Structure formats: C-alpha cells, structure tokens
C-alpha cells in the first residue's frame, strides 16, 4: 500500500494484516548532485517494486529526505518510534547511500546503470528487489 | 390569366426563402448537437488492447511467469504499467493465464512459493494458497479465486487482455 488516501482507507480496514512499514531514505547534497540523484532514483524504484509485490502487507511511506550533512540517526529513531506506535511491527529503511547504511538499513547499492543495456539493468534491479523481499520475508518468519 | 395565377406574391416569396434559409441554418446548428448527444451511445466500449505476452510454443503445463507492460491512461496522463501473468496449459490443452494479484490484499503470488505446499500458488504476505487452476484453498485468507486474463492466440503468439474475476471470464 502507498501513502495515498485510497490506500490508507484500505489500510484502515485491513490493519491487522499490514504490519510492515517501508521507508526509502533519500539524500540531498549540494555537491556531487548527480550521484545523489541516482541514489534517490534507485532507492525509490526498488521500494516501489517491493511495494507492488507485497502490496497487502507493506505500507510504502513517502521518503525520508535529508541533506547529507545531517545526522540522520535521530530522525530514523523518531520515525521508528512513531511508526511502532501506529502499529507497524517491522519498520524497514531502504537506502542506496552507503555512508548512512548501518545494519538497521537495507542497503541497495545504486549501480551506474545509465549506459548498461536494458536486459542487464533489469536483471540487476530484479536481484536487488528480490534481496529486499527476502529480507522482509526473513523478518516475518522470524517473528512467527 | 394563367400567368397571373402563377405569379408569386412578394409576401409568399419572402416566406418561402426565409423558411428555406432558416431551415438550413437550424439544421446546421442542430445536427452537430444531435451527434454530440448520441455520441456516447455510438462509441464502442473502450476495451483495453490485447498485449503480446509470449509464444505459444513456450507454454507448458507448468505455470510460468511472463511479465509485460500495458498502457494505462488516467485522464490525460498516459503511462506504462508492469503486469505479470502465470501462464500454463491445462489437462485439456487450453491455455490458462492467471493474474498473480492475490485476491486478499493484492500481493503478488508465486507458483510453488512454499515448500510445504507444492503445486500451488502461494502468497508470501499472509500465506494464502491457490490451487493450480486458481481456486483459493479454504481456510487461507484469500476470499476468491485468482482472476483470469482474457486471451487470444494469433500466429503462435499469446495476447492477453483484461484480467476478469472467475465466472465472468
């Protein structure tokens, strides 16, 4: 589900089934803009794809956007608390930004795929989507 | 005498010409309006186009996943949306194309996704199960069988249309 009025309606009716929050984390920087834009694009793409496959159990939130100079840990902590209170048991932060990705994040490295051919691109992206999905399934089975 | 009888008076002449010209003008204004009013009835139902998905020779009795893209038009915004289908041939040799969207809350189901339930479609979100023909297994969350795509075979290529709930397709 996505953070839209229609999906939130659905979420409220099926709250007990939706226990996972997915938050893409997106950096903004005043230097090296292109690299950050690539990371953002990549993170959002992967997150959208995961949401499409796991629509019924995952709520995809609007991205947590930050400037690279920022200490993001406090904000991640804050988001986690709020979402936990909202009833989400699993809160996953996805990022392509290696500098912030510690073990609490799911790290999906943005690859320079601009010039790669379409088939290769799709393969790489699919692998990463599957990797995130596996991480989620692992969390779910651990709990049950 | 006869000449006089056939003479058209000024009043008659004006009457005829004005009615004639007025009639043309009225027709000119009304006929497009009538056409506009009737247009919704005359229009064909805007069906989704069939999309080429796979070669028939690639389809086996084992469900395979095929990904394709459909054009979606939302008001003036057109976009391509990815779709998938689980396609196989049933015992009678007929092609079955199932939508992978779980009828419970819309996750994507997988064939043989759960090792303890072989030869079934499995939804990883809430452990929903479907038989091979798409029928939902009782006592799992899904409330209905998987949707089936309308399909068409042309020159050895499989085309898929809209996914419809079972019973309608």
From TrEMBL, chain A:
Q: What is the official name of this protein in its record? A: DUF2487 domain-containing protein
Report which superkingdom the organism of origin falls in: Bacteria
**Which InterPro entries does the record associate with it?**
DUF2487
A Pfam cross-reference name: DUF2487
From TrEMBL, chain B:
Q: Which UniProt keywords apply?
A: 2Fe-2S, Disulfide bond, Electron transport, Iron, Iron-sulfur, Membrane, Metal-binding, Oxidoreductase, Transmembrane, Transmembrane helix, Transport
Q: Which residues form the Rieske domain?
A: 87-160
Residue intervals passing through the bilayer: 12-34
Q: Does the keyword Membrane apply?
A: yes
Q: Does the keyword Iron-sulfur apply?
A: yes
> What GO MF annotations does this protein's record show?
2 iron, 2 sulfur cluster binding; metal ion binding; monooxygenase activity; oxidoreductase activity, acting on paired donors, with incorporation or reduction of molecular oxygen
Q: What InterPro entries does UniProt report for this protein, alphabetically? A: Rieske_2Fe-2S (IPR017941), Rieske_2Fe-2S_sf (IPR036922), Rieske_Fe-S_prot (IPR014349), TAT_signal (IPR006311)
Classify the source by domain of life.
Bacteria
The record describes the protein's role as: Component of the menaquinol:cytochrome c reductase complex. The Rieske protein is a high potential 2Fe-2S protein.
Description of how the protein assembles with itself and partners: The main subunits of the menaquinol:cytochrome c complex are a Rieske-type iron-sulfur protein (QcrA), a cytochrome b (QcrB) and a cytochrome c (QcrC).
Name the protein family. Answer: Belongs to the Rieske iron-sulfur protein family.
The protein's name in its UniProt record: Menaquinol:cytochrome c reductase iron-sulfur subunit
What is the native source organism of this protein? Anoxybacillus flavithermus
């Amino acid at each position: 589900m996505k953070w839209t009025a229609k999906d939130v309606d659905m979420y409220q009716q099926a709250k007990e089934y939706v226990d996972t929050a997915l938050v893409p984390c997106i950096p903004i920087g005043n230097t090296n803009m292109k690299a950050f834009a690539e990371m953002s694009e990549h993170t959002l793409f992967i997150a959208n794809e995961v949401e499409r496959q796991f629509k019924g159990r995952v709520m995809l939130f609007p991205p947590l956007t930050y400037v690279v100079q920022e200490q993001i840990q406090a904000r991640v902590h804050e988001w986690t608390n709020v979402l936990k209170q909202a009833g989400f048991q699993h809160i996953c932060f996805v990022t392509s930004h290696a500098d912030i990705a510690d073990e609490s994040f799911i790290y999906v490295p943005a690859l320079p795929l601009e010039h790669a051919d379409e088939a290769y691109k799709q393969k790489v992206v699919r692998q990463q989507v599957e990797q995130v999905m596996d991480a989620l399934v692992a969390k779910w089975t651990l709990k049950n | 005498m006869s000449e006089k009888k056939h003479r058209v008076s000024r009043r008659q002449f004006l009457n005829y010409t004005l009615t004639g010209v007025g009639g043309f003008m009225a027709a000119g204004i009304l006929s497009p309006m009538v056409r506009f009013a009737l247009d919704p009835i005359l229009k064909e139902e805007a069906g989704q186009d069939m999309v080429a998905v796979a070669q028939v020779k690639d389809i086996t009795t084992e469900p395979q996943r095929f990904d394709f893209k459909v054009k979606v038009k939302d008001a003036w915004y057109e976009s391509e949306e990815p779709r998938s289908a689980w396609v196989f041939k049933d015992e009678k040799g007929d092609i079955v194309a199932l939508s992978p969207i779980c009828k419970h809350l819309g996750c994507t189901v997988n064939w043989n996704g759960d090792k303890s339930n072989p030869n079934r479609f499995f939804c990883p979100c809430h452990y929903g199960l479907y038989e091979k023909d798409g029928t939902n297994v009782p006592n799992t969350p899904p409330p209905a069988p998987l949707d089936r795509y309308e399909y068409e075979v042309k020159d050895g290529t499989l085309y898929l249309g809209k996914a419809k709930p079972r019973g309608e397709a």
